[in-house]
Amino acid sequence: MIEISNNLYLNSSVVDAGNPIIGYQSVLSATTISADYESTTRPTLNLANESTAFFWESTSAAEQFIYFTNAAGAQIDYIGIARHNFGSGGVQYQLQYENPADTWNDVFSLRLPADDASIIHHFDALGFTSFRLRLIPSAQFPRIAHIKLGKLLALQRGIYVGHSPVTLNREPEVINNVSEKGQFLGSVQVREFLSTSVSTDKITPDWYRTYITPFRLHARTGAFFWAWKPIKYPLEVGYGWIPGGKFNVTNESPQGGGFVQFSFNMKAIA
Amino acid sequence: MRALTYVEIDLKQCTLTYGTAPCAAALGVTGASKCYNSPKTCQDTENFDAGTLTVRFAKPTDYLPDDIECIPNIASVSVRPQIIHPGESMGERESVTVSFDDHLHSDAGIDKYLTDRPFDIYNTGTFWSKLKARWPFIQGRELRLIRGVEGDAFEDMEVRHYVIESTTGPDANGSFTITAKDILKLLDGKKAKAPLASEGRLAAAITASDTELTLEPAGIGDLKYPAAGVASINEEVVRFTRSGDTVTLTERGINGATVLSGATSVNLKITPHDEGETFQLAIEYDGEDAADILDDLISNYTDVDAATYIDLPAWKLETETYIGRLFSAIIAKPTDVRDLVNELINSVGLVMYSDIINKRIVLLALRQFSALSEINDDVMIKGSLKIKEQQEKRVSQAWLYYGMRDPLEDLEERKNYKSILATAFSDSVAALEERPESIREVFSRWITVFNRPAADAANDMIVRRYGNAPRLFTFQLPLDIVPILASSAQLSSRSLQDAHGFTESPELVTDHDFNDASAWAINDPASGSISVEGGKLIFQGATGGVGVRATGSMMPLIQGEEYILSVYISEFSEESGNIFIAYSSPVAGPQVLLTGGAELKGLNKIDFTAGQGFDAVFVRRGPTGQPAVTMTMDSLSIKQKNYDASIPVQIISVDKGEARYSVQAEEMTFVQEAVTDRVIIIDQDAFNINIREIHDSIYNTPESGDNVIVTIESHVTVGSTTFINPALDLGDWPDGVVITLNVKGRIQGAGGKGGNASISPSPGMPGGTAIYTRAPITVDNATGEIFGGGGGGGAGWFEYGGTVGGPLLYLGAGGGGAGTAAGAAGINGNSAPQARAGNANSGGNGGGDSGVKRIGGDGGDPGQPGNAAATGFNYGSAAGGAAGNAVDGESYVTYTNEGDIRGPRVN
Question: Whole-prediction pTM value?
Answer without folding.
Answer: 0.73
